[in-house]
Amino acid sequence: MSKFTEFNEAFNDPFDYVSEKRGRSLRFLASYGDDNEKELEIYFWDYRTYVEITFQVDNSEKLTGKGDAFRIFATVKDAMIKNLKHLNQYKDIRFEANKTDKSRVKLYRTLAKQLQRKLGLKSVEEHDQKNDILFIISNGE
Fold first, then answer.
1. Per-residue CA distances from 27 to 16, 31, 49, 60 (Å)
2. DSSP structural state of residue 120
3. Residue 6's pLDDT band (cuts 50, 70, 90)
4. I want to staple 44 with a disulfide (CB 3.0 to 4.6 A). Which of 26, 71, 83, 104 is the partner?
5. Which residues pair with 25 in a beta bridge?
6. Angle, nearest 10°, between helix axes 102-119 and 69-82?
7. Contact at 8 Å (CB) between 63 and 104?
């Protein structure tokens, strides 16, 4: 199996999660680990014309160092794909990565391109900000 195939397949093994609506925003919650001691929270924040995707493990956005990054990203991707109706009401989908964390930027870039193809959106833009890289997946409207 090629490294590229293994990399893409790693994005296809999400954690089980539950979702809840909070106004126009959505929250997703997954517990995982040996004794479900880890908690992943994913948010789709409503900003009227765009939705910002954020997520954290155990109330932190820092890398856990536990080797769960691919499954976390797979869970974010899965939540997005299963909520297309919700996401399609926005012009853009946005998320940020700290630019000093090169591996996370690479993961976000891969995720953005996969989502663009999967969701049928027009473009992926990267904006270099002071501390972060902002990824914008746009439907072109």
1. 14, 13, 18, 16
2. T
3. very low
4. 26
5. 22
6. 30
7. yes
pTM (two decimals): 0.82
Q: What is the DSSP letter of 12?
A: T
Rounded CA separation 87/84 (Å): 5
Which residue ranges make up each domain of the chain?
3-138
Q: Tell me the per-residue pLDDT of 98-113, one tens digit each, with 9 for 90 and over.
A: 989 888 898 889 888 8
- Residue in this structure with the two tokens 């797979």, named with its chain if needed: 74
Between β-strands 25-32 and 123-128, what pairing exists: parallel, antiparallel or unpaired?
A: unpaired
Q: Are 22 and 28 in contact (CB under 8 A)?
A: no
Q: How does DSSP assign 50-111, residue by residue? A: EEEEEEEETTB-S--SSS-HHHHHHHHHHHHHHTHHHHTTSSEEEEEEETT-HHHHHHHHHH
Fold classified for 3-138: Aminopeptidase (3.40.630)
Coil, strand or helix at 23? coil
What confidence score (pLDDT) does residue 118 get?
78
pLDDT tens digits, one per residue of 63-97: 656 668 788 888 988 998 898 888 888 889 999 99
Per-residue model confidence (pLDDT) at position 2:
45
